[in-house]
Specification:
Radius of gyration: 24 Å
Distance between the termini: 57 Å
Strand order of the largest sheet: 20-21-22-29-24-27
Structural class: alpha/beta
Helix content: 10-25%
Shape: globular
Number of domains: 3
Number of strands: 30
CATH topology of the largest domain: Spore Coat Polysaccharide Biosynthesis Protein SpsA, Chain A
Length: about 475
């Protein structure tokens, strides 16, 4: 059978990745991180590059949170990928609304493509086998099936959902099987029973289906989500390279996974065996399992040293971190938080993050390093009436033309060259030169050069919140006053 329909990847970037805290946080979640020193690419970038060699593949549709739009755009720009659309979710509503909106968007192009729906935070080895499996699974999708990939379990994992097929998997038969049922993440006792039955597989969360089939089945089994997504797409707002889904209608969508909304109800679902080394790197335990280790089973990343230690993960991000005589521990150091956990207890990190949120701790969701469309800044130190920041402005980038009603700013250039505008006066600064921005002055910082610009900003005033910004102009489409 010949594959007639075009293949469009749909990459889902909406997760928060809280089980990899303190590195992954809501403001900069797992899919945008590079977690090893060997490869500087993020999970998102690796996901997109992994499928680059598929024949006749079309530009992807990417679904991400509105808060992460510029991080997403910058990361895909760096690997020279031009998406057909970046859909912005105003709220996190799980995978069913995200996939439905992406399918509706793909149909608006005038054809009925096959969608390859990919989470953005998986690790997959045996890429050639993975790509061959996608090609074979497309044939099943052409016939009107909704294909999900099942991974053969190699341990009684409690962090994955399970799929029961109508037949046992065999390595010599690579065909789709009808799905009998889905099982939510089981407890250890149940997981140990499930892996004895060769008809069970881990639910990878990767799907292939025609866009029209997805929408047709969603209309049948989850009409509320489908109708609301149609309105959210219809009333979307184009914002530079992004499409903002309508807040009113999207917020009304039930918070449901595609499994709950569709796959557990449809008779069109099939599971396709995927024989690759796969992990969703859902927590620090799985991160250690999927990393290269030394002779004593240790994984050391960043400025990390161990002595007389075994089977540990030590990851340093901002300072020297040393482990002596420790065993089976996870030690994750960032510039504002340190996690120390037994590897087997690291799944509880998500509960710690919820506890921090309840205590209104900034560290639960925010990173010290904050990314903006023009670059990033790090809060170095602060008190009630002053704050020190290190600001990096990308080549060719510019902050908005703005003023602050409650604070003054002192800028010192430490690397590169800066273009400064203060109250319609324009001038340039180089390294070791500085300027002062008074309270209420209309100002803008720009980097018109090819090299990175780094400045130290000292703020002073009665109020230092990030919402004390009155914008006049902004090249990135952010709200002006």
């Amino acid at each position: 059978m010949k594959i007639e329909n075009k293949l469009i990847p749909v990459v889902l970037c909406g997760g928060s990745g809280s089980r990899l805290w303190p590195l992954s946080r809501r403001s900069y979640p797992k899919q945008y991180l590079s977690l090893n020193d060997e490869n500087s690419l993020s999970f998102l970038q690796i996901t997109l590059q992994r499928i680059n060699n598929l024949k006749d593949i079309q530009p992807p549709i990417i679904v991400c949170n509105e808060e992460h739009r510029f991080i997403t755009a910058e990361q895909i720009r760096k690997i020279n990928i031009k998406p057909s659309s970046i859909l912005l979710e105003p709220f996190s509503k799980n995978t069913a609304p995200a996939i439905t909106c992406a399918a509706l968007q793909s149909l608006s192009y005038g054809e009925d493509p096959i969608l390859l729906i990919l989470p953005s935070d998986h690790k997959i080895k045996n890429i050639e086998v993975f790509l061959e499996s996608i090609i074979k699974a497309q044939l099943s999708a052409e016939e009107g099936n909704i294909v999900t990939f099942g991974i053969e379990p190699n341990k009684p994992a409690t962090g994955y959902g399970y799929i029961k097929a109508d037949k046992e998997f065999r390595e010599d038969i690579i065909n789709p099987f009808k799905i009998k049922k889905f099982i939510e993440k089981p407890n250890l006792k149940l997981a140990e029973e499930l892996i004895k039955d060769k008809s069970y597989s881990w639910n990878s969360g990767i799907f292939i289906a025609k866009a029209s089939v997805l929408i047709g089945e969603m209309e049948k089994f989850s009409p509320e989500i489908t109708n609301l997504c149609k309105q959210a797409i219809k009333d979307n707002i184009n914002d530079l390279d992004f499409k903002r889904l309508d807040k009113y209608y999207f917020n009304k969508c039930p918070n449901l996974s595609i499994d709950k909304a569709l796959m557990e109800k449809t008779s069109s679902g099939v599971v396709f065996p995927l024989h690759v080394e796969w992990s969703d790197i859902g927590g620090w335990q799985s991160f250690w399992e999927n990393s290269s280790k030394d002779l004593n089973g240790n994984v050391l990343i960043g400025d990390a040293i161990e002595m007389s230690s075994k089977n540990c993960l030590i990851k340093s991000n901002s300072r020297l971190t040393v482990g002596i005589g420790i065993e089976d521990l996870v030690v994750i150091e960032t510039n504002d938080a340190v996690l120390v956990s037994k590897k087997g207890e690291s799944e509880k990190v998500k509960s710690i993050v919820e506890q921090l949120r309840c205590s209104k701790r900034r560290e639960s969701d925010e990173n010290v390093q904050v990314f903006r469309p023009w670059g990033n800044y790090i809060s170095v130190d602060y008190s009630s009436r002053w704050k020190i920041k290190k600001i990096e402005v990308n080549p060719g980038a510019s902050l908005s033309l703005q003023l602050h009603k409650m604070r003054a700013e002192h800028w010192v250039v430490v690397e590169g060259n800066a273009k400064i505008e203060i109250n319609e006066k324009e001038f340039f600064l180089k390294a070791n030169q500085s300027c002062f921005v008074p309270i209420g002055a209309k100002h803008r910082l720009s980097n018109p050069y090819k090299e990175k610009l780094v400045i130290i900003e000292v703020q002073s005033g009665d109020y230092l919140g990030e919402d004390d910004i009155f914008r006049f102009e902004d090249r990135y489409g952010r709200k002006t006053n």
